[in-house]
Amino acid sequence: MGFLASDKRIMLLQQKIVIKVQLPCRRCRSKAMKMAAMASGVNSVALAGEEKDQIVVVGENVDAAGLTDLLRKKVGYATLELVVGVSVKA
């Protein structure tokens, strides 16, 4: 967390993580979403991409590599596509 002295607002730095996964069925999609949501520090989980083959996770201090590895072990093919910081004003 950071503190801006100029306007006295707190800036929270969150991560946006995009993981590409193979989701051949609804059950696999549901399982992957549940696993991503249960990870430590996760605030939101959503599906993205034209084929809904990307999981977008937003949270604080999320272990992106660990989450990708977990999805790879439990669901199947998974690759880490993007990790970027997102600032949120509180």
Short note summarizing the structure:
It is a peripheral membrane protein. The chain is an alpha+beta fold and 90 residues long.
Give short descriptive properties of this protein.
90 residues, HIPP47/16, HMA_dom, 2 helices, metal ion binding, 5 strands, HMA domain-containing protein, 5-stranded antiparallel beta sheet, single chain, alpha+beta
Give the helix/strand class: alpha+beta
Q: Spans of 5+ residues with little confidence (pLDDT < 50)?
A: none
Radius of gyration: 15 Å
Q: Give, in order, the helices and strands.
A: EEHEEHE
Largest sheet: 5 strands, antiparallel
Compute the average pLDDT: 86
Distance between the termini: 11 Å
Helix content bin: 25-40%
Strand content: 35-45%
Protein name: HMA domain-containing protein
Membrane topology: Peripheral membrane protein
GO molecular function, one term: metal ion binding
Subcellular location: Membrane
Overview of this structure, please?
The chain is of the alpha+beta class. The chain has helices at residues 26-38, 64-74; strands spanning 2-3, 10-21, 42-48, 54-59, 78-89. Strands 1, 2, 3, 4 and 5 form a 5-stranded antiparallel sheet that branches. A hairpin with a 5-residue loop joins strand 3 (42-48) and strand 4. It is globular and about 35 Å long. This is HMA domain-containing protein.
Topology:
Elements: E1 2-3, E2 10-21, H1 26-38, E3 42-48, E4 54-59, H2 64-74, E5 78-89
Antiparallel strand pairs: 1-2, 2-4, 2-5, 3-4
